[in-house]
Amino acid sequence: MNPATLYPLAGAFLFATGVYGLLARKHLLHKVISGNFLGSGVFLVLIGLAGRSSAESPDPVPQAMVLTGIVVTVALTALALALIKRYHTATGLTTFDPVDEEQL
Amino acid sequence: MSDRRRLAALLPAIVAAAVLAVIVRAVWSLPPEAEGLSVAVSRVAAESGIDNKITVVLLDLRGYDTLLEVAVLMLATVAVLSLREDRDALYRRISERAAPVLAALTRLLVPLALVVAVHLVWVGAVRPGGAFQAGAVLGAAGILLALSGYARPQWVGRGAMRSALAVGLLTFLGIAMLSIVAGGELLEYPEQSRKTLILVIEVLLTLSIGASLVSLFLSSASEGPKEAGR
Amino acid sequence: MTVWLPVLLPAIGGVLTFAMGESRSRSRVAINLGAAAASVAVVIGLTVDAYAGRVATSTVAMLPGIGLTLSSDLLGLLFAAVATVLWGVTLVYAFGYMSHAEDRARFFGFFALCIASANGVALADDLVSFFLFYEVLSLATYPLVVHSGTGEALAAGRRYLYYALGGGSALLVGVVWLTVLAGPVSFAPGGAIAHVAAQAWELRAIFGLLVAGLGVKAALVPLHRWLPGAMVAPAPVSALLHAVAVVKAGAFGMVRLVNEVYGPELATSLGVAAPLAALAAATILFGSVVALRQDDIKARLAYSTVAQLSYITLGVALCSPLAAAGAVAHLAHHAVMKITMFFTAGSLAETHHVKRVSALDGVGRLMPITMASFTVAALGLAGIPPLAGFFSKWLLGIGAVEGGQAWAALLYVTSGALAVGYMAPIVLRAVRPSASERVEGPESDLVLLWPIVAVALLTVLFGVLAGVPGSPVEWAARAVAPSFVGWTP
Amino acid sequence: MSLLEHLPVLAIVVPLAGAAMAFVTGPRRSALECAATSVLTLVPVLLLAARVLDSGPQRYAVGGWGGPLGIVLLADGTAALFLVLIGIVGMAVTVYAAGYFPTPDEEHPGPGHGLFWTLWLFMWASLNALVLTADVFNVYVCLELVGLSAVALVTLTEGAEALRAGMRYLFASILGAMTYLLGVSLLYASTGLLDMEMLSSALKTPSVASSTGLALMIAALLLKTALVPMHFWLPTAHAAAPSPVSAALSALVVKGSFFVVLRLMLDVMPPGHLGGADTLLGVFGAAAIVWGSVQALVQTRLKLLVAYSTVAQVGYLFLVFPLAGAGGAVLSSAFLGTGVHALSHGLAKASMFLAAGVVLKRFGHDRIADLAGVARRAPVLAATFALAGVTMMGLPPSGGFAAKWLIAGASITSGDWWWAAVVVAGGLLAAAYMFRLLATFMASPGDAPEPAAPLRVVRTEWVPLALATASFLLVFAVPVVTQLAEAGSVLARVGGVAP
Q: Which of D134, D244, D331, D402 lies 20 to 30 Å from C131 when distance is taken between CA atoms?
């Protein structure tokens, strides 16, 4: 087990956690955080796999992809939070379904 | 809990486990060493004289990605702006809350932040740094100004702020098109003015990113749920 | 290019009718009558050319290797002429009949589109083009069936759609399948697919699918059930579309299918003609018998149409030249006779609110000209010489005997007797002295009366002048002759 | 280098700059700015299509690098076809929206503080970018641009329902985008390539990682295309959005991600390495046709009916994959049918949503049961639904008919006749839900008073009618579409469309 596989495997685990959270968790903020798990998972996979390069430094292309990905994730998170806030203002809810609201 | 609900609770776990298994299998199957494009990038970086290979990829080889990424950021800001509750009372409350200590701190921090931002832009060409980092610092300064009452939150969505938000993307697009006029392809910077053009892009991007962050922060101000307690 | 005009002129007329809206009724009359007159002129011109042996063909590119092609052959022109001429006559009637109705722009617009697509069906040069116009015709008829917007009309429309779209699907599958096997199939007298290397079962299955598709409009039992229901439409629709354009598109398709796609020889050797003939024979008997029991005049006429359409199908399925000629002639003859009857039925309902046979008593005295016209048509339908119906039945019968299928001739005679059975009560009741106090009342309004008399006159003329070049009988014989090698009329 | 060679980037840069400019000019003048940008975007798109017809696929190396280091834009016939669709529907949406949204003033800048125009141009630009790119990572960025603008446009409708729909859409979008990116990272780790054309040759010897990567990418795109069973987010989002937005979403956005599926499945993946994936996609497509139609049949709201119809019609697009394996004439016919279907459904569906918007404004609701008499009161709207409905049913002479003809023909030729059966059944189901609507329109309106609507709103009804007419007569445009498809990389491989 070397870093080149450890990071991607950790990333895979993060990603799977994110998938579970996005599908299973009801609270909207949980969903947003799960979405960020997805992002972090993918970025770990990318960075880890970039480290397999034998050159003096890791492959820069995946690193650039991660940087772009981070900005995109920030943008998505911002919109998601704004939507949740607006939704909460309009309905007082923090979940899609009022039934789930009571269970939380 | 009905069977249906139990199944609904189980399904995400199954999907997640399946995804995990698929990725692990794929990762495991990869050879331990791979060059990817690192050698090719190194060659280009050596020719162009820019040490930071990631910068070479971001601004030169895949500058088009970065152009669209700037568009993503502006788009997200516009999207959030479209959702804002536009009420003067709301903004007044933010300004009125300004405390004297915060104001004093702001007077101290904002000039410093500006210096840091300029520095970050400048070093971006050789070391980690650049428009996004500088923009974040600039945005923080802007938020401080708004919270302490030096800048009025109502400015969100007004003409000057809109221009600041858009100028980064517009400059990027303009310079990208400039290379066409100069006889190259899109984003093919003319060799002699390369560094200058990239610097211009970075500076104005910093401004736009800062403006974006300030707008994102201020436009999420709200009066709280209308039907509290539901 | 001219060959497109019988399609384009009514279509443009229809679109203009929509565009002008509800209020401008004078322009509507002018445009529709203008389009009808122009179409008639074009069809006559094309016919004169076709008689002289000049057949025009024109293609617009469409699917890969398949164009939308029209051709002015005599067979197609006969149907186009029937549809176009009777459209003009029906328009006059309809302007009178619909003068106080709502949604007239919609009505006349779709009416014109129906004729445009019927002409397309007539002049289509290949199976795909035929299918295209056939389906457009199905759709354009729907708004006319449900015109009144009542629950009854909507229900009839729904049933019509089940049949039309189901049949259309069968037709689509058949046409695609045949095209995959044989490439684009252009109609060719005597058959177009004899050279195709395909399993016999495939060709039989395709024939079945195509018959199922065409059988809906041709009202073959058991696909006929939409037709009586569709009589809920306004009288001009029943008259022109459900006695002429729409239903004849199905019967006409049978002619194309047997004579010009499979060809009489292949249809016989594959053994598909005989079942079709049997089905048509069953339909004739069924329609005639059921018609006997209908009290509603339009329903009685509708079942009569069911029977008469199968005269055509049977005639062509017998695969003998004279029968085929009789079938095609009957396409025109039945059109003028049945349209007379539906005009009459519409006028009866409009003028005296009479819709049932049992309520006809004495009407003949109030509307002598109308009922006299009806009587002419009824006699024609029963096959009394020298009216139109006699000649087509004569050809059908002779053809059946010549083809060694005397049973069909017997069937035609039987069905003629049944026609007398279901027509006679209408005429007799109308002339019977009224038991009720119906002693005075108007004759049909003039604008309704002229078209009735005109089409009744055609019934006489088609019969009396049957031997003259250009009469339906002579035209039909010329049109089917190329399908039978070595036969000349 | 002539300006004509830069047409691909002009199709992206012009609307992008227009979006930024519309934002700067502010709500009151941005409609005008957007109209000007729309025209300026359409021109390079049409010129590009003409150029592709004339001289084949155009490649554009952004920054002058080319693969594998740089990003390449590829304008082949298929891309040009989708660009033209986006252009036509885009232009219609712009014109329609100008009448649909109230004229902005100081007090009322319009929905979303008058930001519709900016967001809409962003969407147009990102769709063009998505279709043109030949780089799998760049696809990711474009997908995010499309997704972000789509969600923002959906939530321009006031109220909790639209917010809920928008958030569902956003979460689906995030899951899709991240899964796609994960796929890209595995693909890159395995091949060291991002350029589609280079990947195509590298993948002739696939590995576990590259296959997994592609599978993840395609799965993500299926979610974005809303292929059953991953369609859950679509109906509410498309129905809740403002009508011009619904039109763009149903007609264009789902087609954008489908386009990438098409690229990946037929261009990037080597033929014969699809495993069972092609059949699986076909089965999902068939399920979508049936399920979407059945759902459309039971809807009580007009916009939801139209949205479920999209779920169904998307299914047809996926029938190409099981047929593609046969190659030759079957592939060419199925591929052309798919292209025609994308085009005709795009036009027809846009027209239906735009018309539904006018229905909402004129009658104040979209409850199907209460729409009796529309044929008399608003004949143009009824005609629009009728003409677009013919396309949905696949009856001649509509584009839907041409598509069905080609796909069914391919299916029968290949011997896998059951796909043809699905196509025919789908047409009948579409007829069932469309005629349910049309019959209501034809019913007598009763005595309810006719609601009055502002003339500028009523005038917008001509835009959907024009689109619907185009889709109705599309069979006559098939020769041009055929030429375009033959200039696409897929058909170039099999030597064009056999007559």
A: D331
